[in-house]
Structure formats: C-alpha cells, structure tokens
Design brief:
2 domains, S-methyl-5-thioribose-1-phosphate isomerase activity, Methylthioribose-1-phosphate isomerase, 7-stranded mixed β-sheet, alpha/beta, methionine biosynthesis, binds 5-S-methyl-1-O-phosphono-5-thio-D-ribulose, Four Helix Bundle (Hemerythrin (Met), subunit A), single chain, IF-2B-related, Initiation_fac_2B_a/b/d
C-alpha cells in the first residue's frame, strides 16, 4: 500500500535526544513544520491545539509523551516512579475529552507499568518505550486491515464522500477511512472522492484534500453544506468516516457535522460506513449520551482563518467539536477484526470476545 501513501510520520520518537518529533498539522497545507516536544506541557499543548489530531495519532503522542516525561524522572523506588507517572498521566488525559484513544493509550501504558512493578526502574523505562512503540506499530497494521475490509464493500469507479481527516497523518500510517481509498488507488479502482471542508477547523480542506491530492487520488473539495447536492446528483455511492469513540450500542462520535452527513446519506439511500480501530470502541460508554463532547473556543468560529472578524464581536457562539451519529444511521462499523453490522450491541460485544 505504501506506493500511494504520502508517508509522513506525524508522530516520531527521537529517543536519543529525548524529543518527540511532531508534524504540526495546524500549519498544513501551507507549511510542513516539525515541532520538537520535550515536556509534558509541550505534549499537552500539541494535543489541545490540534498540532497532533485524529484519535489514533493522539493516542500515539500520549503514549510517547508519558514515556518521555517519566524517562527522566530520578525516582529511586517503584512507588516514587508510579506517583510521577500518574501525575503526568492525569495532565495528559486533560488535554481533550472525546477521543477515547487518548485514555486507552495512557491506560495501556499504565497497565504495562504495573506489570513491570517488580523490575528495576531502568527496566520499567525500557518496557514503557517498548509499549509505546508497540502502540504505534500495531496502529499501522490495524489501519491496513481496516482498509482491506472496507475495500470489500466498494467497487471501482465509485464516488466516495468523507468528512474531517481520518488519513495517514491522523494515524501511524494509511489512515482509517482513507485506507481503502489508498488501497483502491493501488489497484486502479479510480475512486472519485468528495472531501467535506469540515468547518470550523477545516481538516477536510487542509488535510484530507492535501494528502489525497498528493497521492494522486481524484479528490474534489466541497463545503460542508454541499454534501446534499452531490448526493442528490448521484455523485456519491458510499460515505466513509473515521471516529473518536464508538459506544457499546454502536453510536459513534466523530468530527462535528458527521451526523448531518449520516442523516443525508440515509435520506438518499447511500451506505454510511464508520471505520473504527478496536481501540476506539469504548464499552464503558453504553450509548452516545455517555460520550463527552469537547467544546472549543468561539475564536474558531468567529475569527480564525480570516483577517477580519467573521461575525459581530458580541454575538454568542456554540462550538461543539464532535457530534454523535446514531447507530441506526450506520450501515456498518469496519474494524481491523472485520465488518460489524447491526445489532451493534450484540455484534460489537462478540468481536471484542474473539
Ligand atoms: C482516524 S482519525 C478519526 C477521527 O479522530 C477524525 O475523524 C476526527 O474527527 C478528528 O477530529 P480532530 O478534532 O481533528 O482531532
């Protein structure tokens, strides 16, 4: 698959220099800037400000972050080390609330710490690095597998619509919703992709359109409010999106606007697929109502991207960063373990038990 994927590692550890090298996604597509993160505040800030974004990439950054910021701890006992670890974990976990991969990765790092309890601090530190490397490596395989399964549902020449960015830079490699597009590209499937611009932070315009265009995929950028007309005109045969958290009943939180696309897809009889690594499925959230939706600043709606204010200064705003697509609108959830169809409560539980 690598042939058509723009291989940019959005999160990379430089262990020798105690640094995380991070592609600053806020500067794309105009500038390809790599940041050097060293402290817990650097990592927190990068996640909060979406310099690293996309659920799997956030998880990878948090895993390397917690490794790095505990690596230099001079704790001499396990208890002391574990105390520093949980302080750092708490800080990183406060960066963004919706993508469950953040908490999943931090919990997994903590589980590894506890597993190595009897070892020396040096061995524990090495184990934490190994765990963070594994989280990243596994994500590559997961994305590739999601891509293979999703491709089974698609046919050459199809028009596909996607929202936000669930591509290479949102993951370790390949992406989730964009993985079948890259895979199809390699097989000459000639997909026609419509990328929603994704207001207010424009992940579709700045990131999806950019990475698909670079890969030579036939991509057309549309504003969010144009999804209906392209569907009505018969230009779209399937919708593929990523997600930040899937509840046990299949309700799926993803970038704001996703649920509107799902409602449109249902209206026009177009299949709506959610691409979800198992790490994004949160059995602790029973339904979408249990998922915390991140609220962000009014500046993202009123001024960002424009040299002049876009709205009266005094006007109130409401800026939820995600919405939840009701499971009844989702045709299938595509995981690395296979394609899951309704009844989601039953079938997600089954796939977890496998
Ligand atoms: C494979 S990335 C899946 C999701 O995280 C993605 O679709 C999304 O909504 C990202 O939101 P963002 O706010 O840009 O982090």
């Amino acid at each position: 698959m690598t042939e058509h994927v723009t291989v940019i590692e959005s999160v990379k550890l430089d262990d020798k220099n105690d640094t995380i090298i991070l592609l600053d996604q806020t500067q794309l597509p105009n500038k390809k800037v790599f940041l050097e993160l060293k402290t817990v505040d650097d990592v927190w800030d990068a996640i909060y400000h979406l310099k690293v974004r996309g659920a799997p990439a956030i998880g990878i950054a948090a895993a390397y972050g917690i490794y790095l910021v505990t690596k230099n701890s001079d704790a001499s006992s396990y208890e002391e080390f574990a105390q520093t670890f949980s302080k750092m974990k708490e800080k990183l976990a406060s960066s963004r609330p919706t993508a469950v991969n953040l908490f999943w990765a931090l919990d997994r790092m903590e589980a590894r710490l506890e597993k190595e309890k009897a070892q020396s601090i040096d061995v524990i530190k090495r184990a934490l690095k190994e765990e963070a490397d594994l989280i990243k490596k596994e994500d590559e395989e997961v994305c590739e597998s999601i891509g293979q399964y999703a491709l089974e549902l698609l046919e050459p020449g199809m028009g596909l619509l996607t929202h936000c960015n669930a591509g290479t830079i949102a993951t370790a490699k390949y992406g989730t919703a964009l993985a079948p597009i890259y895979l199809g590209q390699e097989k000459g499937y000639d997909f026609k992709v419509y990328a929603d611009e994704t207001r207010p932070l424009l992940q579709g315009a700045r990131l999806t359109a950019w990475e698909l265009d670079q890969a030579g995929v036939d991509v057309t950028l549309i504003c969010d409010n144009m999804a209906s007309i392209v569907m009505k005109q018969g230009k779209v045969q399937a919708v593929l999106v990523g997600c930040d958290r899937v509840a046990a009943n299949g309700d799926a939180a993803n970038k704001i606007g996703t649920s509107a696309v799902a409602i449109l897809a249902k209206h026009y009889g177009i299949p709506f697929y959610v691409c979800a690594p198992m790490s994004t499925i949160d059995s602790k959230s029973k339904t979408g109502d249990d998922i915390e939706i991140e609220l962000r600043s009014e500046e993202e709606i009123k001024t960002k991207w424009y040299s002049e204010p876009m709205a009266p200064e005094s006007v109130k705003t409401y800026n939820p960063a995600f919405d939840v697509t009701d499971s009844s609108l989702i045709t299938a959830i595509i995981t690395e373990k296979g394609i899951v169809y309704p009844d989601y409560e039953e079938n997600l539980a089954k796939i977890f038990a496998e």
